[in-house]
Amino acid sequence: MSPRWTPNPDVRTGRHVVCSLHAHLVFLTKYRRGALTDPLLLRCEEIMRDVCADFEVELVEFNGEDDHVHLLVRYPPKVQLSKLVNSLKGVSSRRLRQEHEEHVGRYLWGGRFWSGSYFAGSCDGAPLTVVREYVEQQQRPI
Asked: Are 115 and 27 in contact (CB under 8 A)?
């Protein structure tokens, strides 16, 4: 009797591909201004989960502080990471500014919410549990 194969939940399968693509993303607020409060971080996570769903991307972990956010995403090979990042930053910036205009306006000006740059790191070399723990620990102490 041969052992049964159990699928790995971190491996995606498609018609012509089997893959495990994860990225750690970090976005900074413009000028590293501390505009992100706990309610804004919660709303930012909701917005980014919606954007990820549109791209067929899984937002595995989200956390942040007052001036930046960390995301751990699992994405299929058809997704260009730069396009995902542009959409995540663009949609979240627009919605957070619209919904929290007065608060955001006190910290950020000139129509920008996020810094133009970002960090993207491949996570396939490290165990996902380690990366997930790192992102979870990025939350400021309450």
From this structure: yes
